[in-house]
Specification:
Order of helices and strands: HHHH
Number of helices: 4
Number of strands: 0
Distance between the termini: 10 Å
Length: 78
Amino acid sequence: MGALSVILKILYILNCLFLITVVLMQKGKTAGLSGAIGGAAESYWGKNKARSMQGSLGKLTKISAALFIILSVALVLV
């Protein structure tokens, strides 16, 4: 077992834990009845979604998922 394999496995485990945490911190997409009534209030957050916490969590999820795929392929090849 080489040093590169050990480093990749540690990064893989840390990335998995981070990805689980980020996904669990996100809110659900369905708002139910309250979303249908208060839809006009959501227009501000829709415009500034990238600056909100939900937008940041979405970006972190995409980056972490891409890293997950890259590390998975790297672990198979090593």
